[in-house]
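ARCHIVE CARD
SHELF: 3
SLOT: left
DATA:
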Amino acid sequence: MDLNLEIFSPVHQIKNQLFDEKGLEVSLKRDDLIHPIISGNKWRKLKYVLQRAQTENKNHLVTFGGAYSNHLLATAAAAAKFGFKSTGIVRGEEVTNDTLFLCRLHGMQLIFVDREAYRNKPELFVQYFGADPTSFFIDEGGASREGAKGCSELIDELTETYDHIFCACGTGTTAAGIINGIQKNELPTQFNAVPVLKNGEFLKEEINQFLSGPVDYNLHTAYHFGGYGKTDDRLISFIKQFVAETGILIEPVYTGKMLYAIYDLAAKDYFKPGSRILAIHSGGIWGLLGMKDKFQL
């Protein structure tokens, strides 16, 4: 079982009249193209986690997420691809939807638990699988030092230097990894995290725990649109226009909010003219399946 796979995703420039007027060069690193399901930061976060599971002779991946979790789906697909069993512990009452259908199709067993019990994931793991020596705990969203290490490699792939790098932020693992990569490569790049949750200031602590050393970075907390998985007409209209103009699919949970932030900050003259900006497309396009009714197409 070879988990030592090379990852490559292209960088595409986004042409837009706003950016031309402001003298900005904005590009998108297309991590959504890494794999059709294990895409974006999902594969980067799982890469070294799965290697550790293999080293420890564990063949049963146990992880956590909500009913529309891209992480659950990515773990199910990765397990099927690399010969693991998988179980997803799902927050909330038992439901059926497109995401969970795809999880089951990839062989993932699902256990639904109430929201209170879900708060203590290590305890749930012990409760259900403590007696199984083959089971391997993966935290929600793949949050871990191994996950940050995988995400740091994104910076090694860049052939250009940017003034700003932007990334959506849910658990802080991807952000920490990218910051570590910037530091390792000694780049003069300012990192910008866009929390997708309400009151996202707490993510500073989540990010800092995985950093290789102290560093300054920006946290843009005004673009959550009501909280995790929440949206409004402004964001939906932006996504519809972006996809129609670029042919690049984005979703409202992560990448849509991050790109909206860049466009809004550009309109408000946040960036110096001549700035080169790289946005990270973190995949998760299957999240669109749970929000189809928002688009009214």
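SLOT: right
DATA:
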Amino acid sequence: MLDAGTGSGRLALMLAPLCRAVVGVDRDAKLIDEARRQAAAAGLSNVRFVVGDVEVEEYAPFKPDLVAAYLCMSDAIAERAGRALRAGQVFAFVALHTDQWKETGRPSRFAYGETGARRLLKRTGFTVDHLEVERDVKAFASVEEGLAAAVGLQEKWKVDGRWFRYVKFLEDGGRTLTRAHLVVKARKA
């Protein structure tokens, strides 16, 4: 299995006992070092972690039977998975959905809707086995509750303009905050 954008290796480490071999790839060397420490501490010998850019480097040298991506998804990742996998092999991912934080009025550039994901997968040589949206919509009784729910995102959202849009949404009577993920399993055609 190839874990594209592994970060600190959470998915790779969790799936390692179920796989013959796992390779986690991420461009953040500090996160890769942390993943290596965790693998060593867990005594996992079938996992290795590599510093690399999953949107630039090809996956074929890793010879994956499965490519997975958790909250690290892009057209480039799907294209590389499409080139590396053989017929019948699986590409599975969880991506931000276009409804993620829709109250901010600004979808993530990494978000996918159902139709866009299906088109991308078809273009890259996959057929969809499973596609669903997992949504969690928090509702608030007051502006203060809505602000408190997003306080951990405030600094990040101020940088990209989302914070002010979310505050306006709350001031105009909105009382929700949506978290939404697209969960997909596709097979190479």
